[in-house]
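Onboarding guide, step 5: your first structure request.
Type a short instruction followed by the sequence, for example:

Predict the 3D structure of this protein.
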Amino acid sequence: MSSTGHDAFRAAVGDAVHAPSIFNTQPWRWHVGPEGLHLTGDATRRLPVVDPDATLLLLSCGAALHHARVSLAAQGWAVRVDRLPCRERPGADGPYGCEDVLARIVLLGRVQPDPVAIALRAAIPRRRTDRRPFGDEPVPASALAALIDAARAQVTRVHRVRLDQMPMLAVAVAGAQDSERADPRYRIELIQWTNRPEWSNDGVPPGTAVRRVPRRVPVRDFTPVSAAGRVSNMADEQSLAVAPGGDRGAAYLILHGPGERALDWLRAGEALSSVLLTAAQAGLATAPFTDVLEVDHPRDLVRGLLPGLSHPYVLVRCGYPGSDQPLPAVPRREVDEVLHEVAAGERPVSGRIAGRSA
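The system replies with structure tokens like these:
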């Protein structure tokens, strides 16, 4: 591989580290070598309680993959993306540990930089998960159509929760949150990822969480709790103070599709990235959430809101920011922590994940 191609891949990974991920676990590894840029999941960063089937890990990796694709298109590279390349050929082997590979990106040559990708790439460092209440101004139909098209381009559908469906969504989310917080294993997992050492550059700092107040649809409480369920007073003081209510102008979107294979979850992650970057480029605030899908009964309630036989992958709350105050910075790992150089014929170290079939 030329030094130019290598630099392009490194820049793409530099953009991909900003992708959203469950609990900001950043559960991905990138490997660059003669065969291209390979994406693998990092099983050491899977959440065994919240994400026992590793579907949210796949969703997170899909978002990182789309960030990398946007970066390369903006840099003026035509690429080929092979998703789950080894699973498509059972019994095949290769230098990357077949089933570990979620995607392979191969450079095809230089092209004119894509203007749409340039705009989306510029939105990558601006995008934040905004857990604060959104304003009263409704999201225009044209903006919603753009978000739906953004997901459709990644082979994923979007359902906007109707007004008459909002009470059921609120009940489902509240039920899921109550169920999880009653589970001591969940509380321990929450503590692990909201009390990260500063040098880890991951997890959810209390300063990016919001205090619990009545909301149109409850927001996951990232305020650390003890094993006995008591809230840390210091963490509560550090979290963002918000007024009750709000979100009257917010739109709630459900990304969904017909299947629950590994490929479906990976593509849903790409769609999530596309939706979030499109929204950020249009000046909209967003907050993806999955807690309602992490518990069986609430997930079934959400599935009942969808047309036909479809499976929900992730929900997104979007709207106009309710505050002009900037959000605190979110920790991100450095490129050298997630990007590994691979020599010809070398098998990179990658934690195998127990994912769905392709």
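Each response can be followed by summary notes, for example: Confidence is low (pLDDT under 50) at residues 89-98, 226-236.
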